[in-house]
Alcohol dehydrogenase-like C-terminal domain-containing protein
Amino acid sequence: MLIVGNLIILVCSPKKGEYVYVSAASGAVGQLVGQFAKLAGCYVVGSAGSKEKEEPDLDAALKRWFPQGIDIYFENVGGKMLDAVLLNMRLRGRIAVSSIISQYNLEKPEGVHNLEQLIGKRIRLEGFLAGDYYHLYLKFLELVIPAIREGKMVYVEDIAEGLEKISRNCYTLKWRVKKE
């Protein structure tokens, strides 16, 4: 998961001051993507949730958090989320597609209806597999190990011991970025 989190740097080239949105930000990949974007000096908002926390109007929610628009979107969800994000992307925005988890168990996957935004806003959308970048793993370690040691990147493990606890205590990763 570590190298996938770093792919926001390789695929989207974030620059200081850019606006970054990460879907499924509390997952193993999303929590790292958010931290790498923060380390690059970006304004970062991540989403996570469940059916109980579902936002009825994704477009309006994104406009609240990104009134100026989104420069980079790290896609982990797909479907309605991608549709709403496309409406809120800035000119020459970049989208890295890591996953589309909202579509995995659907009998009929949702279509994306706002693809014309890719053309008018000149948005670059790129899918990738982490294996394509394994040759860069040592360079990645040179970046991430000092960041963890210096407290610039943080990870928290919540480990439950014993099979009887599996249903109550799943292994999760949570992230936060140390405030400067």
Confidence is low (pLDDT under 50) at residues 170-180.
